[in-house]
Specification:
Largest sheet: 9 strands, mixed
Radius of gyration: 26 Å
Strand order of the largest sheet: 6-5-7-8-4-9-10-11-12
Strand content: 25-35%
Shape: globular
Number of helices: 12
C-alpha cells in the first residue's frame, strides 16, 4: 500500500513539521514552511532481504588501488585555479551568486573552450529560451558545434537527452528550476531540490559526466534551498562582486579535490568576463597617495598573495551611539581593534564615527590584516598619512600585542614585485625569515610600537 500524507517543510533548512508554523523551530526564519505532499511506500515483507552484491563488499584500505585525478582544463586559468587545477570527471560543482553577477556568462565561456577542444557539452537552461542564450553567445563569441543548448525543466526528459548525447560536461541553469515527476511539490522546494540533485549526482558519478549546477542565493547571500545541497556536491563556489565595480571574485568554500582558500579574479567587460592575472596591481591602480586613512596590506587567498588597500575614515559624531560601518572586513573584528586602540594606545575614539572599507569590493577574512585596520584608523584619526611604499601585516591581540602570521615570505615577494620599499611585520616573523630582500623589514611586537614607527 502507498500512503500520502501532508507535511510542512522549511525551505531554508529542511525542517519538517506535521502542521504549519509561522517560525521554523530549527533555523528561526519566518514564513518559510511550505505544504508538501509526501508519498510513502508500503513496508517490505518481513524477512525479505536484498540480494548481496559481491562488487560492493568491504575492502581493506591497503588493498584499494588509488587512481590519479585526470583533470580537464577549461581554458580559463582563474576558474581552473579555484577548482584545484581543472575539472575532475564525474564531479558535481555548485556555483552560487547574486542574480546578474555573471554565473551563466562564466560557465558559457568555459563550456565554449571545452567544446572547442572536441568535447560534447550540454547546457540546460530552465530560465531562458535557446534564442536568449544564442543572443548572449553571439556577444561572447560562443559558437562551438559540439556545444548543445536545451531549454528544459523536467528531469526525466533532461536525462533522456543526456543518455542520447553522452556529454562530457553538463550544465544545469539553475537547479531550482528543475523538477521530477516523482515528487509532487513545486520546483525549487526542498523535496524537489534534494531529489533532483541526488539523481544528477548518480548520473554524474556513474557515467563520469562533469556537472555544474547554478544555484540561486537568498537575500542573506547563502545558496537557496536546504544545506544538504551543499553537502551532496563535491565543490561549492561563490561568485561575488559589487554591481558598482567591474571586478568579480570566484571563491571556493568547499572542494573535495583542491584547496578551499583559492580565489579567482575576473573583470566584467562588454565581451564577457576577462581574467585578471595580477589582481594586486589592479586593486592598487586607483590608490590615492599622501592621504590619511589609507594603507596597503598583503592578504593571502589560498596560494595567491594579493595586495589591497584598506581605507578608514574617522570623524567626530554628534550621535549618542557613534556609527561603526565596515565593508569587506568583519564588523565585530573592527570593533575589537578599535577597543584595543582606545585601551592600549590611548586614542579617544569613543565619540568618533568610524568607517572602514576594502577598496575594490574584495572581502578580507584572515587575521593578518588586523594591523592594517589599526593603522588605517589611527592614520585617519591623527590626520597623518602612511608612507605610500609601506605595507603592514600582523594579527593584533587583545593585549595590544602583534602576533605572527603565516607565509610572510610570499607576501614580501609580492610587495617587492610591485615596488614597495618597506614592510612592517611581527617581530617573531622577522626572526624566522631566511630570504634576502631589498625591502626594509621592520619588526614590531606591539600596536604602540607600530604607530611610533609609522607616525
Amino acid at each position: 500500500m502507498v500512503r500520502i500524507r501532508t507535511v510542512y517543510t522549511c525551505q531554508g533548512c529542511g525542517y519538517k513539521s506535521p502542521r504549519w508554523l509561522g517560525r521554523c523551530p530549527d533555523c528561526g526564519q519566518w514564513n518559510t514552511l511550505v505544504e508538501e505532499r509526501v508519498v510513502e511506500p508500503g513496508r517490505e515483507r518481513r524477512g525479505a532481504r536484498p540480494a548481496q552484491d559481491p562488487r560492493v563488499a568491504p575492502l581493506p584500505i591497503g588493498a584499494i588501488q588509488s587512481q590519479a585525478e585526470a583533470r580537464v582544463r577549461t581554458g580559463i586559468g582563474e576558474l581552473d585555479r579555484v577548482l584545484g587545477g581543472g575539472i575532475v570527471p564525474g564531479s558535481l560543482v555548485l556555483i552560487g551568486g547574486d542574480p546578474g553577477i555573471g554565473k551563466s556568462t562564466l560557465l558559457l565561456q568555459a563550456m565554449e573552450q571545452l567544446a572547442r577542444d572536441g568535447r560534447t557539452v550540454l547546457y540546460v537552461s530552465g530560465e531562458e529560451s535557446p534564442q536568449q542564450i544564442k543572443l548572449r553567445g553571439e556577444r561572447l563569441g560562443v559558437g562551438a558545434p559540439t556545444l548543445y543548448v536545451l531549454a528544459e525543466t523536467c528531469l526525466e526528459r533532461l536525462l533522456e537527452e543526456v543518455e542520447r548525447l553522452s556529454p562530457a560536461v553538463l550544465v544545469i541553469d539553475s537547479i531550482q528550476t528543475i523538477y521530477t515527476a516523482e515528487v509532487e511539490s513545486a520546483p525549487g522546494s526542498v523535496s524537489q531540490v534534494r531529489e533532483t540533485c541526488g539523481k544528477l549526482m548518480t548520473v554524474a558519478k556513474g557515467r563520469g559526466i562533469s556537472t555544474f549546477l547554478i544555484g540561486h542565493v537568498t537575500k542573506e547571500g547563502a545558496i537557496a534551498g536546504p544545506r544538504v545541497l551543499e553537502h551532496m556536491v563535491d565543490t561549492v563556489l561563490y561568485f561575488e562582486g559589487d554591481r558598482g565595480h567591474p571586478y568579480r571574485i570566484l571563491r571556493a568554500v568547499k572542494n573535495r579535490f583542491g584547496s578551499t582558500n583559492e580565489l579567482g579574479v575576473f573583470a566584467m567587460k562588454e565581451v564577457g568576463l576577462e581574467e585578471v592575472t595580477n589582481p594586486s596591481e589592479l586593486f592598487l591602480s586607483e590608490r590615492p597617495l599622501g592621504v590619511s586613512g589609507s594603507v596597503v596590506v598583503p592578504s593571502l587567498e589560498g596560494t595567491r598573495p594579493i595586495l589591497v588597500e584598506l581605507q578608514a575614515l574617522v570623524s567626530g559624531s554628534s550621535l549618542a551611539l557613534p556609527r561603526r560601518t565596515t565593508m569587506g572586513v568583519d564588523h565585530n573584528r573592527v570593533g575589537l581593534l578599535v577597543a584595543v586602540l582606545e585601551k592600549k594606545v590611548g586614542l579617544h575614539l569613543l565619540n568618533q564615527d568610524i568607517f572602514v572599507n576594502v577598496a575594490g569590493g574584495i572581502k578580507l577574512v584572515e587575521p593578518a590584516v588586523d594591523l592594517g585596520i589599526v593603522v588605517a584608523v589611527a592614520s585617519s584619526f591623527l590626520e597623518r598619512p602612511v608612507d605610500a611604499r609601506t605595507v603592514v601585516m600582523g594579527e593584533v591581540g587583545l593585549a595590544g600585542e602583534i602576533r605572527a602570521v603565516a607565509q610572510v615570505e610570499v607576501r614580501i615577494r609580492e610587495a617587492e614585485k610591485l615596488g614597495f620599499t618597506r614592510a612592517l611585520l611581527p617581530e617573531r616573523n622577522l626572526g624566522r625569515l631566511t630570504l634576502t630582500s631589498a625591502i626594509d623589514l621592520v619588526g614590531v611586537s606591539a600596536v604602540k610600537d607600530a604607530l611610533e614607527v609609522l607616525f
